[in-house]
Amino acid sequence: MSDVRKLIGEALSEIIDSAAHGGPRVRVGLQANGSEHGSEEIANAARLAQRQNPSIQVVMIGPKKVEGFDDLEWIETNDCEIDLEKAMDDAMDSGKVAGIVAMHHPFPMGVTTIGRVFTPACGRDMIVASTTGTSAINRVEAMIRNAVYGIAVAKSIGKQNPTVGILNVEGAQVVFKALRKLKENGYDIAFGESKRADGGSVLRGNDILQGVVDVCVCDTLTGNVLMKMFSSFSTGGSYEALGWGYGPSAGEGWKHVVNIISRASGAPVIANAVAYCGAAAAGKLPELVAKEVEAAKGCGLEEIIASFMPKPAAAEEEVKAPAAEPTDEEIHGVDVLAIEDAVRELWKHGIYAESSMGCTGPVVKLNKSKEEEARKILAAASYI
């Protein structure tokens, strides 16, 4: 009988809590220790998150190292990383929480996190795909997959037709060509546009400061640096004060919503990360990732990735340059990693060309009279 009363009591408590907050609350677990700013900073962030987002219930997970926070719900553990990780996984597996916010989680290969920053020029939020974990070992492949995961995360938090741009890092032009091919095959992707005079969907630093797209695609290491710069540029670096943290986990077949924060994240960022996690979980992120991956694969994702992987034999082939001639024209859009191979490709067809670096990236310089033919050659070889 006591068990029945307990169940009835819990059910009534949930009904009362739901009525008080305008509907069911999303339960988000929060790692209770490990911050460079102390455990009290984390507990204060939990209170802040609940105050700012009445639809969220924070569940602290970890050793209880602070006094005066009995108003928060706790799942207490020993001060041991293995016990903490087990408690967080158990809480997600059992449904006690819809997702967790943690400073570390052992993601498998193929799973990455999708961050979110506050862009200072226009006060917009922007998703950064990705910031931790690894969606693939090869940078180009990883960035292509990051675009798909970034779109899924954007949709999970209510951005139904997110615009996408690619940060101008090594591999960006290849990634853009691959995503453009995916779009041509029917995958629903909306490319954003640079605010620079020459436009395009490959973004410069000016663009990300303005937040010109909803989803900025980059490799994980660059994304991680961006997160740190955007979140702590006004504090000197030791305290992350702005943004939503390093974001929820996404990957093919991955079922959990695990948002990562830094040990340098302050209460405002942690509170935002809790809200970000709750929104992604309520938006059924794992299901959206599966849906986006299925749609992309249906449009040839795997085949497109394979077609854009490096072709090492081309670089090793010995090709002599034709007789030099004036180079008064430039061809843009060749990735920096493939620029020398692109030049050799033209040499093989008797067209003299040189590689150079313009203000927007690498260019192939050649005689204007050969431009049309050269473009056809480079397009056929997938350099542009």
From TrEMBL:
- Tell me the domain of life: Bacteria
For this chain's UniProt record, which GO biological process terms are given? fatty acid biosynthetic process
Example GO molecular function: acyltransferase activity, transferring groups other than amino-acyl groups
Q: What is this protein called?
A: Glycine reductase
Matching Pfam families: FA_synthesis
